[in-house]
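pasting input
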Amino acid sequence: MIKTWELDPNFKYEIMNEPGGEHLTACYQCSTCTLGCPVTEIIPSYNPRKIIQMSLLGMRKEVLSNADLWICALCQTCTARCPQDVMICELMGAMRRIAEEEEKAGDIKIESPRPLFEKAFLHTLQKYGRLYDMGLALEYYPNREGSKIKGMKAMMKDYKDFGMRMFKKGKMGPLGGGGVFKGMRPEKIKEREVLKKIFEKVGEKEK
Amino acid sequence: MSEKKIAYYPGCPSATTAMEQDMSTKAVFEKLGIELEELEDWNCCGALEAGDPKLVIALNARNLALAERKGEDIVTPCSICYYNLARTDKALREDEKLRAELKEIDRSLEYNGTVKAKHVLDVLVNDIGLDELSGKMMKKVNLKVAPYYGCYLGRPPETAFDDPDDPVLMDQLIELMEAENVPFSYMKTKCCGGPLMMTRADIAFEMARKILEGAKNAGADCIALACPLCGMMLDAKQPDIEAAFKIKIDMPVIYITQLLGLALGIEPKKLGFNKNIIDTKKILEKVM
Ligand code: SF4
Ligand code: SF4
């Protein structure tokens, strides 16, 4: 049951103020988004239409702490099909960012490792200017698992066979040309100073 | 196509997981007499992990500006890089204030919207064109192919260059090389699960499994694709997917530029056919 006295009528405006959230109130609940969603196909309880309805009603806390916000694959199918141009995919991004702020303020707990992954990704990008898979993994897994040892174990499990495959094909390591440490050391761009400035000015939320 | 030079934005996976896409893109353009000039000192586009649109725009403005200073359009083989470059280009063309803000951050982010951002597939079919390509076909590519487009070519509408529900550009190339398109419409534009790989591998694997088995059931010899993240999921992770579901798929996954390269008479090694994770021997035997 919805506790009407706990609803936050301003929640929809809060979302609409965030880039990507602008079209929220155009939604007329037709369910086209949910019907075409590849994640819903696999996890039937995942329902983007419902997340939007809850937002429109002002169920702020329920929406922001909902783990479903983080399993959207960002595939754009719903955005392409929505008759009301709601840009659901971008909307998910907007809600995710509000949820992260809320977590920082200590008001909710996000039940997904996705923010940790994004942080690790952006750290390598900020540091080197290019994606560096190994650096990313070395930061992400320990954070996700809550300790270095557990993180290393989880990482080994995911990467042992995969890494061997890459090695054999010369996509990592010495076999493919491009140096002995190919793929194992970061590729750095020269103008890293510019990246630093970018992150200082527009990346505050990402740090 | 009039200009013979394009700025090339390879994207991060080009150096490692998607080497064969990089190699075959370069080989195909060389064969077609178009110079791909790699952008010097390009930076990562932020993929789908830079959630804040402003950050995406700043990161990609730098790359667009690098191309603009050379006066060349910018082409990338990656669907996600393409999306980020194209949406940045659009945002900056429409918003003078935003352009000024970026210039404030650093002079090198000054972009005035005088070049275009394109995906390799778009350049091949729409700029170079099927007519010109058809005169250069050297070899019949005798294969049954499942053309897989994934997400960011036909959607979102603001940057799409193919149909969202039934894209055709790869189909057209496949026909041109006298290969056969297997019936695959219902799977063509489904997400491969790549963006969930590191956080919800269970969902991602199931998404990829459907596409791989869909291609197999359609009788394909291989899947053709145009995005390194799709390649990572469907090719590099295929053995993990087989293990997770205890199934055998063994479906070669080939970049469309690799297939086109064969049709143009380029030798397989130059196209990186020894780099795909799922063995491509069977494919090559059928074609060569
Ligand atoms: S498709 Fe658009 S209008 Fe329909 S429920 Fe989804 S968001 Fe609302
Ligand atoms: S973008 Fe997210 S909500 Fe929309 S169809 Fe794809 S997975 Fe579903």
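fyi Chain A touches chain B through 62 residues (CB under 8 Å).
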